[in-house]
Write a structure and sequence with these properties.
single chain, 311 residues, mainly alpha, two-stranded antiparallel sheet, globular, binds acetyl coenzyme *A, PaaA_PaaC, PaaA, Ferritin-like_SF, 1,2-phenylacetyl-CoA epoxidase subunit A, phenylacetyl-CoA 1,2-epoxidase activity
């Protein structure tokens, strides 16, 4: 490692400059980014599945059209993110192979089932809401391609969050049965949404270095608190109750205090033992295998076109 290059890198990061693909960077910075961005891409990619489950059963044509375009957006997010990771010298095939053989992680949240239509509404409201809190912060990431991908993704996620909240409101203001469905979905998705922010700061092995390099700009616990503070008034407005008896506004800090997350459940899901982990991965592997002929045909077509140009 060249000490002058290292100093230039450190100075650029400290001055809020963006590191670009051709700039020198420490090998561990590169590796951390590949890990985080590829896992983020995988999350968007696997995240299509719980919602995809409801496309054929959406309660109206309007809801179906919205859901389809939202799922399409998530596919787009995974593509921007795979492209951002590719600028660090890793191939898309290698990233997908790591997902398919279980080496790479993706967000724990997508390993929970969507039992009713209200779960789809709750995902938009809570899961996309949590994703925005995390991603707004990542817009200031020191790595240029990742921070820029976050700008567009945040705009789209913001729309997703609003449509989820609006769908939740329709249920919460509907018949007693619909309100009950909304409450039950909130009960199911509340704690898993808080888990999206990762382990608490004291148990987060990557945080210190990632914060120093300005890959992450806020700590896991700070972002989780921001999400809770933002979401409780929204739940109140819906007339729904968050399933946490310890939740209370702390007059001194101005923040909501909340109960302890079930960390055992969190690690079980992260390590592959959640309700849907096996099903989700199998589904992705099958989609990859069934799409092989499309990739082969596209490559053959591209080769033929290139050969024609040469001739
Ligand atoms: N689900 C699955 N794995 C998780 C989760 C989670 N909710 N939270 C943390 N982990 C993993 C980390 O990836 C890390 O594993 P690894 O070292 O094998 O990669 C381990 O648990 C320890 O966690 P941290 O040290 O806190 O890891 P990190 O500094 O990467 O922070 C975080 C985790 C906050 C998720 C960060 O990676 C991040 O901000 N990622 C980008 C956002 C993202 O991926 N969002 C996906 C969901 S949003 C959506 O797709 C709609």
């Amino acid at each position: 490692e060249d000490p002058a290059k290292r100093t230039a890198f450190d100075e650029k990061v400290a001055a809020e400059g963006k590191i670009e693909p051709r700039d020198w960077m420490p090998e561990k910075y590169r590796k951390t980014l590949v890990r985080q961005i590829s896992q983020h891409a995988h999350s968007e990619y696997v995240g299509m599945l719980p919602e995809g489950n409801w496309v054929t059963r959406a309660p109206s044509l309007r809801r179906k059209a919205i859901l389809l375009s939202k799922i399409q957006d998530e596919a787009g997010h995974s593509l921007y993110l795979y492209s951002a990771a590719e600028t660090l010298g890793v191939s898309r095939d290698a990233m997908l192979e790591a997902l398919h053989d279980g080496r790479a992680k993706y967000s724990s949240i997508f390993n929970y089932p969507t039992l009713t239509w209200a779960d789809v509404a709750a995902i938009g409201w809570l899961v996309d809401g949590a994703a925005i809190v995390n991603q707004v912060s990542l817009q200031r990431c020191s790595y240029g391609p990742y921070s820029r991908a976050m700008v567009r993704i945040c705009k789209e996620e913001s729309f997703h969050q609003r449509q989820g909240y609006e769908a939740m409101m329709a249920l919460a203001q509907g018949t007693p049965e619909q309100k009950k469905m909304a409450q039950e979905a909130l009960n199911r998705w509340w704690w898993p949404s808080l888990m999206m922010f990762g382990p608490s700061d004291k148990d987060s092995p990557n945080s210190e270095q990632s914060m120093a390099w300005r890959i992450k700009r806020d700590s896991n616990d700070d972002l989780r608190q921001r999400f809770v503070d933002m979401t409780i008034p929204q739940a109140d407005y819906l007339g729904l109750t968050v399933p946490d008896p310890e939740l209370k506004l702390n007059a001194e800090t101005g923040h909501y205090d909340f109960g302890e997350i079930d960390w055992d459940e969190f690690w079980q899901v992260v390590n592959g033992n959640g309700i849907c982990n096996r099903e989700r991965l199998q589904n992705r592997r099958d989609a990859w295998d069934k799409g092989a002929w499309v990739r082969e045909a596209a490559m053959a077509h591209a080769d033929k076109k290139a050969a024609r140009k040469l001739a």
